TrEMBL record:
NADP(+) binds at residues 11-17, 106-109, 141, 164-167, 180. Residues 7-228 form the NAD-dependent epimerase/dehydratase domain. It comes from Caenimonas aquaedulcis. Its EC number is 1.1.1.271. Substrate binds at residues 188, 203, 210, 279. GO terms for molecular function: GDP-L-fucose synthase activity; isomerase activity; NADP+ binding. Catalyzes the two-step NADP-dependent conversion of GDP-4-dehydro-6-deoxy-D-mannose to GDP-fucose, involving an epimerase and a reductase reaction. Belongs to the NAD(P)-dependent epimerase/dehydratase family. Fucose synthase subfamily. This is GDP-L-fucose synthase. Keywords: Isomerase, Multifunctional enzyme, NADP, Oxidoreductase.
Length: 323
């Protein structure tokens, strides 16, 4: 490994990938390889293999993924499982074939069983049924973890996996239905404020609890994990599996989140709950103690992170169509 390795960030225009690029730049990484979807279709095996053969990166951050909230997962299950499986398989296999020794795969806390004991630790993987509303996406992410594990076992690679909790922040998708809960709420409350709407309906009962992590904190965790020594990594993960959780450490109810987003936006109308809509898992709090023991910790409280996210929304997404 060179002093300034050649690093490929797959998905650099997405919320997580762009945050990883910011984190790497702040730490002095000088040789980044970046490709947009128009330049490189990661679902195209031949194109991905050709890219890796030409560029020969030394490290890969696999942040490219098709993501969305409950509505998107329910509406496009085939696209979620197909796109994510193809991207993961193509990138991980091409990395192996071209001698990439270190790769970081970004998964999701939805890999854990719907009713896993809270907070969920890494050993809960594959111990029970998944949440039905996002099962295809979760199965794809589990396959990515197991692919990294299998290549490590058979080929001696150093492919690591991190499981973030719910992320939000600059570069998010602010579609009111297809996005995750924080950006969807942010757009709805912003548009309700602008229109003078007397109330805003939030999906579900408001009782499920969720943990939220600011995306730049996740990016710093990703770089931290990539740079851990092999001995530190192996001492804090299950043998050969290479999986660590990344979370904030506390959660809030969806109702509490809605009021926090309304305060951030400055919306003063009534908040109602559409109980005909699905809630998803009753609670999703992850145990990040293994990563905390390795020297990383989150920096951004929820209220501060929401303010930063709203500033980004106002600067880049306010005028964009909700599509």
């Amino acid at each position: 490994m060179t002093a300034s390795p050649k690093i490929f960030v797959a998905g650099h225009r997405g919320m997580v990938g762009s945050a990883i690029v910011r984190a790497l730049g702040a730490q002095g990484a000088s040789t980044l390889v970046l490709r947009s979807r128009a330049e490189l279709d990661l679902t195209d095996q031949r194109a991905v293999q050709g890219f890796f053969e030409r560029e020969r990166p030394e490290q890969v951050y696999l942040a490219a993924a098709r993501v969305g909230g409950i509505h998107a997962n329910n509406t496009y299950p085939a696209e979620f499982i197909y796109s994510n499986l193809m991207v993961q398989a193509n990138v991980i296999h091409a990395a192996y074939l071209t001698g990439v020794r270190k790769l970081l795969f970004l998964g999701s806390s939805c890999i854990y069983p719907r009713l896993a004991p809270q907070p969920m630790n890494e050993d809960a993987l594959l111990t029970g049924p998944l949440e039905p509303t996002n099962e295809p996406y979760a199965v794809a992410k589990i396959a990515g973890i197991k692919m990294c594990e299998s290549y490590n076992r058979q080929y001696g690679t150093d492919y690591r996996s991190v499981m973030p909790t719910n992320l939000y922040g600059p570069g998010d998708n602010y579609h009111p239905e297809n996005s995750h809960v924080v950006p969807a709420m942010m757009r709805r409350f912003h548009e309700a404020k602008r229109a003078g709407a007397p109330s805003v309906a939030v999906w579900g009962t408001g009782t499920p609890r969720r943990e939220f992590l600011y995306v730049d904190d996740m990016a710093l965790a990703s770089v931290h994990v990539m740079n851990l020594s092999t001995s530190d990594w192996q001492a804090n993960t299950r043998p050969m599996q290479g999986l660590l959780n990344v979370g904030f450490g506390s959660d809030v109810s969806i109702a509490e989140l809605a009021h926090a987003v309304a305060r951030t936006v400055g919306y003063e109308g009534r908040i109602t709950f559409d109980t005909s809509r699905p809630d998803g898992s009753p609670r999703k709090l992850i145990d990040s103690s293994r990563l905390l023991a390795l020297g990383w910790k989150p920096r951004t409280p929820l209220e501060e992170g929401l303010a930063l996210a709203y500033a980004d929304f106002r600067a880049h997404a306010e005028a964009a169509p909700a599509a």
